[in-house]
Amino acid sequence: MFPQKSGKAKLDEVTRILSDLKSDLDTPKLSSQQRKQQLEQLKVHGRDPTNSDPIFTQDGLRTLGRYAFKEKDVAVSQEALRCIANALLLQPKARQILIDLEHGPDAAEKLKSDSVDDEFLLSRILFLTTYDANLDYTELVNEHHLADNVNAAIQRHADRYTQPRQRAQEHTAPMDLMALSETLKLLFNVTHFHPDLSQHFTPSIPNIFKILTRRDPPGKPLDAPVSFLINALLNLVREEGTGTEHQPHDPELHAAVFPSADPAGNVTHLINTLDSSIRSYPAAELDTAISPLFTLLRRIYELAPADVQTVMQSKLLPSDTDRTQPLGKTSSLPSRLLNLSTSAQTPALRDSIAAFMFELSSKDPATYVSNVGYGYASGFLLSKNIPMPESAIKDAGEASGAGVPINPITGQRLDMEEPVEMPEMTQEEKEREAERLFVLFERLKKTGVVNVQNPVEEAYRSGRIEELSDSD
């Protein structure tokens, strides 16, 4: 450990170290060990930006950059990279200075190193320069092999996950996981800020899924690196255009997401992760925790072939078993999703779930009501100004997939509903109830959401209304 200094003594020490290192670049006098020790001491001082100002100047970063990107001694180079990474983290202004010194291409080129320490440091430096700086990432991809080097790094991580597993080769050292996480964060930011570059990272999709599906789950389902793997996929699993404007499917993208050996394997793993995540996190955390995963599933469904879409529908929409009770009352994944779609604690997820259920129902209002019940469907359809077909409630109540009539409001099978024990209504009570229903139906018609025939009016027109005598 180096003695800690503060105030002017620290500033003088930082100035001296940088001066000695700069002089050594012009007239080498220090040994590799001495250079490493000087840089280690500078790194310690640089952890607190107070009285470390020379590090964050153009002169200081030029000196560190020459050691980081031109020095052949790996230990010396990595110490300089650590100093730079700390500087970019603590002083955002240092990011543009480093770019102006033209070290962006140097970092992209050096990322081809198979050292996890180099990968961690270089990915972090490049990741930090995606904020508050103007680095030409298109140039880095096209001319300095950034995408190739990122893809190669993720490939090296995925190669640890053989099948059958050889656990000794999987990620166990903290630095391995830290390097993977930084590379995935870099990939996400580059493809987020520059979506036109996403196609260059498509080769990483199978390797990301390989790590996701073969790695033992962490303590919580979405702990690192799972969250970073999912975020990285978010900007890769999509195609240009929307709806009818879609370009022809990208064969490389589809082969990566839906491998021929098991087209639904990747998406099934993601759905299982969603299920375990909803069970593991408190409701207050779900909005933040699982929204990226849910968005990824929606994008995959949009691109999926028909057979994979069918698998997703079977796992995410209520089954006949769910209909033994009113929908949302069982412990299944579809029931939990329906409950979250009306939860005040998950405002972002709430809308996303309702929209996805609508997409899983072929974006057809009648099918949507049949799948989730009018109680859950009505709010979404009303908020989106989607008109309800007149036959929606009637058709929904005729039969479920098993051919058994269902309650169109609750989605429960009618043969599973508990009989309601109520005393016989008096004639006066029946009249009051009929009048109340007549008014409610008239109000419903005026909303324009549902165009229904008032049952009282219909009964009158069909001759089923009986005129009672005055005595009755």
UniProtKB/TrEMBL annotation:
A UniProt-annotated Pfam family: Ric8
Biological processes per GO annotation: G protein-coupled receptor signaling pathway
Annotated region described as Disordered, given as residue ranges: 25-53
Top-level lineage group: Eukaryota
Keyword Lyase tagged: no
Classification via InterPro entries: ARM-type_fold, Gua_nucleotide_exch_fac_Ric8
Molecular function GO terms recorded: G-protein alpha-subunit binding; guanyl-nucleotide exchange factor activity
Entry annotated with the keyword Iron-sulfur: no
Keywords for the protein's UniProt record, in alphabetical order: Chaperone, Guanine-nucleotide releasing factor
Start-end of Polar residues biased regions: 29-40
A GO CC term assigned to this protein in UniProt: cytoplasm
Similarity comment text for this entry: Belongs to the synembryn family.
Name under which the protein is recorded: Guanine nucleotide exchange factor synembryn
